[in-house]
């Protein structure tokens, strides 16, 4: 009875005493930021980085945009077969992409548009009827040249932390496509040469020691004599 008459510790609230607040649906399900769970990751490989990590500053290119003569092989390849040079650059940058795929895409997008414009001008001449087709083909080649090849130049700059030289990657390929291809080839070639020039320590194994037949006979003959000496010493001791 005492428990029944005892006053309850809980107070029942009415509508007048505690007005209900309007709650927007989904307001209580907002994500909460936990500092311990915020992990900085590398943009290239996705591995977690420590809090004290500072990204490296952008560096200059090892060669200039007009330094094509510094590597004659890439210069001639980029001048006469830019699609082949672009394919080699893409394969070096991304091993999962074969150079033939990038070469064919470059040939269709860039060389294809220029070939259509040149064929139209040679076969039909330049008149108001064909001028639109010629301009459209050249504009397609110029636009695809800047977008398609500029994306790979941007990936190269992220990989080696390079600055925009001399301007945005897409604009570089739009205005100086062949020079940009040669510069990218030289840049990757220089970085690969820096990684391979490492001093290797050659350790020669010790010479193999062989026992001749004469030495084996001498060791066999000396064994009984030493055994006999031990027995004589034991007899004298007794």
Automatic annotation (TrEMBL):
It comes from the Eukaryota. Residues 199-238 are annotated as: Disordered. The chain crosses the membrane at residues 103-124, 130-151. Keywords: Membrane, Transmembrane, Transmembrane helix. The keyword Coiled coil does not apply. InterPro entries: PLAC_motif_containing. Pfam families: PLAC8. The keyword Membrane applies. This is Cell number regulator 6. It comes from Rhamnella rubrinervis.
